Amino acid sequence: MEKKETAKNKSSKRLTRDDWLLRALEVLSKEGNAKLRIDLLTESLGITKGSFYWHFKDRADFVKSLAEFWAKHSTDQDIKEINQNRGAANDRLLNLMDFLCRKDFGKYDVSMRAWAAQEPEVARIVKKVDEQRFTFVRSLFVELGFKGQELEMRTRTFVVFHSLELGSFARGTKKERLKLLKRRHAFFTRP
C-alpha cells in the first residue's frame, strides 16, 4: 500500500518546463542522448507522459527546446552578466574565467556536442553557441591588443578549453581549479 501512495504522490507533482529541461540535461550528461526518450524521462521523474505533452508539442519541440535551454543558460546569460561589468578587458576576462569555473560552465558541453553529431537541430544550435562564444572572447582579446593569428589562437584555445574542461580533462576540486585561475589568466593575456 505504501508503494502505491508514493507513486501517486510522485505523479501528482507539477513540473515546470524548466524542470523538464534541467532534468533532461542531467540525463544527457550522465547517461547520454539514448536515455532522452519520453518514456524513460517520465519514468525517472515519476510522472506521466501527459506532463511531457503539456510542455512540448512533440519530440522535435523537446529537442529544440533542450538545445535552446542549454544555449541560454551556458552562453547568453553569461555574456550578458560579464558585459554588465564594463571594466578593463583584462579584468573582464579574469571575471569570465572565475564565473565559468564557479558555475561549472562546461558541465553539459561535451554531451551537447556528442548529441549534435546525431541531431541536426542540436548541431545548428551548438554552432550558433560556438559563434557567440568566439565573438565575445575574441572581442576581449582584441581590447587587450592581440591581432591576427595570435588573436585567433588565443580565442580558440580559450573557448575550447573552457567548453571541454569539465567533461574531458578537469582534475581536482572546484576550489583547486579556482586557485589556478590567475596562472591561466596570465597564460592567455601575456604577449
List keywords for this structure.
single chain, 191 residues, mainly alpha, 79% helix, elongated
- End-to-end Cα distance, whole Å, is 70 Å
Assign the structural class, choosing from mainly alpha, mainly beta, alpha/beta, alpha+beta, or little secondary structure: mainly alpha
Mean of the pLDDT scores? 85
The total beta strand count reads 0
Low-confidence stretches: 1-12
Query: What share of residues is helical?
Result: over 70%
What amount of the residues lies in strands? under 5%
Describe it.
With 191 residues, the protein is mainly alpha-helical. It has eleven helices and no strands. It has helices at 2-12, 17-31, 38-45, 49-55, 59-84, 89-102, 109-116, 120-143, 148-169, 174-179, 181-189. α2 packs across α5 (59-84), α6 packs antiparallel against α8 and α8 packs across α9 (148-169). The longest helix is centred in the middle third of the chain and has 26 residues, at 59-84. It is elongated. The model is unreliable at 1-12 (pLDDT under 50).
